[in-house]
Amino acid sequence: MTLSVEERYQAEIKQSDIDHHTPTAGAMTGHIVANLAVLINKLQQAKWYVKGPNRFALQSRFGDLLTNAQRQLDALGTQLLAEGEVSPSTTAAFSEYSMLTEAGQNKYQTADWLVDNFIHDFDTSNLFVTRAIKLADKEDRPALAKFLVELLNENQRAIMDLQAYLGREARSGLDEDDDEED
User: Fold this and answer.
1) Of 164, 181, 156, nearest to 112 (Cα)?
2) Full-model pTM
3) d(CA 168, CA 106)
4) Domains and CATH numbers, the chain
5) How far apart are the first and last CA of the chain?
6) Which of 21, 87, 97, 147 has its CA at a distance of 20 to 30 angstroms from the CA of residue 12?
């Protein structure tokens, strides 16, 4: 018996709800996909609107991060499909599953504020990446775990570079035991 399009979609929604109440590597990776989708929008906005004496350097860096996030989103969605999972693929799903927030007002923020906000976005994303790695290992999904480890590495490097722009060490202001004296 072949299910209709609507029946297949309703089954996907039901399974997604189950997976998010008992986290799986696939469900956690879906959050990462959603975070990437929101990050892409934020990077595009920052690239267009960044102001100040470092505009050209930051515009280029935000563009590089944007291109990388677009590549990661596509590759991670494809990896989920290869794992037999369903990837979030709509604006509604991205909004529901992302832990990053965006706002039109951000385009008026200072360059330093934008950089700091991206540092925290990458750090928030890494909370999901590290959890997904642990779940992928537990579920014996080595290809997904390997992909996620590389994503974690890329995010950590982005944090390091953005922190350096602000004159800070890589983990400054991000770890609970840090002094709040930036």
Assistant:
1) 164
2) 0.87
3) 22
4) 23-165 (1.20.1260.10)
5) 62
6) 147
